[in-house]
Amino acid sequence: MKTEYLNQETANCWQCSHFAISWDTQRPYSCRLMGFKSKALPCYEVFNADGRQCQCFQAKVVQKQLSAAKNTEQPVNNPASIMGKNKMNLWV
Prior knowledge:
Blueprint: E1 19-21, E2 29-31, E3 36-38, H1 42-50, H2 63-72, H3 79-83
Antiparallel strand pairs: 1-2, 2-3
């Protein structure tokens, strides 16, 4: 079987943005981009069919990347943050 030659440097479905878990218990793993479900991870199915690693692999956006992107955005002009400690208490 060709899957025994699959190593750590190949595409990993768990880290791919196109990977999904299917509702189908017979074929629980799915690739949204290629549009199929399988019993094994789609990267193994592609490797078995083609002999090459998945060419559609696209890494997921990691939480660290998201927080870095948020830090580079301009702050929103929030009236509460502008007023700071001198907020008026309207519920008196």
